[in-house]
Amino acid sequence: MRDGHILEVRDVTKRFGGVRAVHRCSFALAPGKIYGLIGPNGSGKTTLFNCITGLTQRDEGEIHFKEERIDGLRPYQVAHRGIGRTFQIIRVFPELTALENLLVVTREAFDSARRKAMDLLRFVTLDRLQNEYAGNLSYGQQKLLEFVRVLMTDPELILLDEPAAGVNRTLLNELLAAITRLRDQGKTILIVEHDMKVVMALCEQVFVLDHGEKIAEGPPAAIQADERVIEAYFGR
Amino acid sequence: MNVAITPTMIGQVIISGLLAGALYSMVALGLALIYGVMRVINIAHGTLLMLGAYTTFWWFRLLGINPYLSLLVALPLMFLLGMLLQRTLVTRVVDAPELSSLLLTFGISIALVNVAQLAFTSDVRSVEFLTGAFLVGPFALSKSRLVSFAFAVVITVLAFWFLQKTKLGKAIRATSQSSEVAMVCGINVQRIHLYAFGIASALAAAGGSLVAVIVAIQPEMGTVYTFKSFLVIVLGGAGNYPGALLGGMLLGLVEQLSSLFLTTQVSEAVAYVLLVLVLLLRPTGLLGGRAR
Amino acid sequence: MRWAILAALPIGLLLLALYPMVATGYGIQFMLQLFMWVALAQSWNLISGLTGYVSFGHVAFFGTGAYGAAILVSKHAWHWVPASLMGGVAAVVLALIIGYPCLRLKGPYFAIAMLGLNEVMRVLVSYFEGLTGGGSGLSLPTLHASRQVYYGMGLAALAITGVAHILITSRVGLRFMTIREDEIAAEAMGINTARYKLFAFLLSAFVPGVVGGLYARDQGYIEPISVFPLLTTVTMIVMALFGGKGTIWGPVLGAVTLFIFQELVWARFLYLHQVLFGAIIVVVVLLMPKGILGILQERYRLPRWV
Question: What is the pTM of this model?
Fold first, then answer.
């Protein structure tokens, strides 16, 4: 890995018409850590995720994953290389059952895939709902389903878009524990999050975006005290 | 067929194209309204045009007075029919997946075409009113096409004035942009849908009335106009009302020009081929409407 | 329960296979057409029921196959069986050519493009008169082959339903469905949606092409308006919807039910037929868009092999 980084985003810019959603954004992720990506609404966080995963094509800049340049690849190719993501608005497959949601994303042999899927469902206590249509699950259950669906393909880098949104305290603690466990297994995680408590508790390093630009970077405590960050959130 | 093509022929063709184009624009504006406001693909649009044509035919047949005056009857009549269709049926497929609106409007279409067949028979009708042409310099302007053009322009201008200047028109445009925001602004979106479909039906019927004096009238006449309206919308960009104007003119021109260079059979195909080509190459339209 | 159905199937098939020996000419024609509609509805189901891409011009494949086969039989003295298969191939080639660009279009645009494609094919066929007889149509050499066509259609219907079964009970079919459910999420999860869409599209084009060829043989004469009508597309769609799109037996159920109903009504109310059909379309679209099996599957959590 280049300088030991698993993901490198270099000077990425994305425009939508006249709007600069992301502007010359650069950062690098070392493997096996949990990173946070924060910023006021509209600061370009999800757009950045979309650029990394190929859902959106960046206008300028480069994105490298494990020494390979991945900008310009189609989303499914990015996924095959080991990057998984969840979405801000839950995107499970509503008319597929919970189990089918997990089975469909992997090409592993059916039996081992099924075992893995059931393990994951058990992990989030959704196993008794395996044959329930995903669309009939509650918000929290869908959230969990989407979370484990990402894990089916064993990605090395996991992008989580607002994993805490709309989730009650107990569930949240389970999720946070799960994320920590993933990190301990050697995975790299980048979380977009608005809930500062989650960011403080979980993340080792935080990037701050405002109006598409990275304005600060550092450990959570330092970010909290950073003037530019405070200004971005509270006063202009 | 190696006939030399003179500038006069080209000029003639351009004029014919513009004359026809205005009609296409007007009818297509109706289709654009329905899609823009309700996200409904109205396959029955040509059928509404056909009903307008029959209204004019029977007006002329039974009353014997100027068929163009039948617009006074056709427009309000079809406006009401449009609202009725919207209220009873179309409203249920607003914002629905495209399959629903395609099937529903198709169902409406064949029902209406068959009612027309039963009521009016499939005999081909015509309205013999204005024949002959004005001669302006080297160009021959068919009288009926010219008058139809004039009416089409007036009606289209009125429609645009309505959309731009009146409160209801602005509400319609707002709803086309975003029905959620429109609702939040206090616009009664249900009523907007009602009026939009009514107006669109009236526009289609107007097209039918005007075309009744020019072409043969029969229950299936609407289909080709539906396709042409689709093409106009695709050319101008979905949801782009001024785009419909441009698209209509463009279609008229292309059709006439192609009749110069291609046999009649093939120029018939031009509209369809163009539709598929434009969709494949630039689905957002030449003017770049929203890619919805 | 499952074993009862599994036993009934071969028995039913056996009965259908033996039927021509005791059937009247009308009976064979009736069943032959029934099979044809089953094949068409199921084919449409593969692309539109599963991936959600609404093919609103699907009869284009039927017409292409009809003309492909008819030309081979009448101009090149092919036997109608391989000719029909070539009709299927012609349809797949067409699907390949337009599939790649068309499948990049979003919902309504794809539907309209398919609608336009159908008209383009119709006009193209009319234009190349030398090859196709143009507007005056194309005649095949006289041959009474109703019985054989019966088996042909039956096999086509069986084959495509079999394919539907294999797909829908496997992960391949599930992947088709993810395209319908949420194409963006599917792509993000590593599913090559472009490839799967195209695959579904090609699969859905073959049988209509073959069936078109068989139809041409059975009718002995085809013309552009008879093999490219929008009404045929809509009919196969409504059949698939009525029975339940996205399921295996839904299109079969829909085709059988609506075809029988159509025959009963057509025979009696010739003039009202189309108006009634319009009414059926409206009812299905507004009141039961999921179809019978679709509703049952949801309500009673039926397994996918239904």
Answer: 0.92
